[in-house]
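seq as requested:
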Amino acid sequence: MISVYLVDDHELVRTGIRRILEDEKGIRVVGEASDGENAVQWCRQNEADVILMDMNMPGIGGLEATKKILRYQPQARIIVLTIHSEDPFPTKVMQAGACGYLTKSARPPEMLQAIRQVAAGQRYLSPEIAQQMALSQVTQTDENPFKALSERELQIMLMITNGEKVNDISEQLSLSPKTVNSYRYRLFAKLGINGDVELTKLAIRYKVLDAGQF
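struct tokens:
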């Protein structure tokens, strides 16, 4: 029996995934969380064969939660399930130690395949994500500027575009507001922009954000 833990800030998404998994023999859902912080706390005291992790959530988000969980449970098998299909997200997530990457456009059979494959100790990337990552290594055409961001800068970028304020980001990441602002202005410089509005527009242009979110 494969145990699965769900992490997503949308209850409707969690409900839909849970129903798919509960209808499948050999898989059971052992818990769920609506944010990265609660997921980390749960994983400090519990284990699951596979953790399905959303990327963009209030608070620390899926990337940071993945890294923290793996500090407590180096053997944890995490599949990131997200709306983000474009690099740098797949690359950053796999570098952080995740075992799989799926977009929310994946059909249920693919999600079930990914869960079984990762539970068996293998990695899983959907074919289109794998192809995209391979191509990004050999072509520089219309290079995505977000690839130049560090993991922390990428994380703070997501929180800013999610409407979170510097003081909130500071508290959630245990950083001083001054340090958060330093990261903020550094990522602005790397991207060649001057503010949060330009950041959001650039993120939509390169499909780092979904315009439908706004």
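The chain has two domains: 2-136, 145-213.
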